[in-house]
């Protein structure tokens, strides 16, 4: 079927709607260029083969100053000479008498110790025996004197510090009898704390 018709009255060819069985029309444009081939993205690229090896990079020489031949000697260290026990001037017998008297007086006034008092008294006797037989260092004499007077002056915590120092520095000499002195010190600390609480309560 023809898609155009002639109108006799007007002399103009009018377009006619195509029928259902008319073949489709294709327009052809001679100026249209054919499709260009697409770039192939998965195309393999040959790796260049070369027998030449890359030469190592040579760093320019660095100007390093020469090491000193010798260091200057260190200044001498002046050590403070330690006091030797034989250089300590102390009256061993009178010091023992003072220490023993203070400890036994405190022990007699500590009735709250009960049966522990007998063990403390025995250990004070061991201290006396070692002291009199020359088995104790003179430095121990002075420290025990300070400990005893700290207890007498109601400073049991200071006495406890001295007791700890003796156990660190002279444990082999005081280890057998110092536990009794320790019990007496701790009893004095507990008594001092109770007195402080009672004093605060009455104020």
Automatic annotation (TrEMBL):
A GO cellular component entry from the record: nucleus
SRA1/Sec31 domain sequence ranges: 62-187
InterPro entries listed in its UniProt record: SRA1/Sec31, Steroid_recept_RNA_1
Biased composition regions of type Polar residues, renumbered to the chain: 1-12
One Gene Ontology term from the biological process aspect of the record: regulation of transcription by RNA polymerase II
Residue numbers spanned by region Disordered: 1-37
Taxonomic superkingdom: Eukaryota
Annotated Pfam families: SRA1
UniProt-recorded Gene Ontology molecular function terms: transcription coactivator activity
Matches recorded under PANTHER family: STEROID RECEPTOR RNA ACTIVATOR 1
Name of the featured protein: SRA1/Sec31 domain-containing protein
């Amino acid at each position: 079927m023809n898609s155009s018709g002639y109108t006799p009255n007007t002399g103009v060819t009018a377009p006619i709607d195509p029928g259902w069985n008319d073949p489709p029309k294709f327009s052809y444009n001679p100026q249209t260029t054919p499709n260009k081939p697409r770039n192939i993205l998965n195309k393999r690229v040959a790796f260049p083969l070369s027998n030449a090896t890359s030469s190592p990079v040579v760093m320019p020489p660095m100007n390093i100053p020469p090491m000193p031949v010798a260091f200057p000697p260190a200044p001498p260290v002046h050590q403070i000479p330690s006091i030797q026990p034989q250089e300590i001037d102390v009256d061993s017998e009178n010091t023992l008498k003072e220490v023993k008297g203070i400890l036994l007086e405190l022990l007699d006034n500590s009735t709250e110790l009960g049966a522990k008092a007998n063990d403390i008294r025995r250990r004070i006797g061991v201290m006396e025996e070692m002291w009199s037989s020359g088995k104790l260092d003179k430095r121990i004499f002075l420290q025990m004197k300070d400990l005893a007077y700290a207890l007498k002056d109601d400073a049991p915590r200071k006495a406890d510090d001295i007791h700890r120092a003796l156990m660190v520095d002279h444990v082999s000499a005081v280890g057998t009898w110092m536990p009794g002195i320790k019990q007496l010190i701790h009893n004095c600390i507990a008594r001092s704390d109770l007195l402080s609480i009672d004093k605060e309560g009455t104020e």
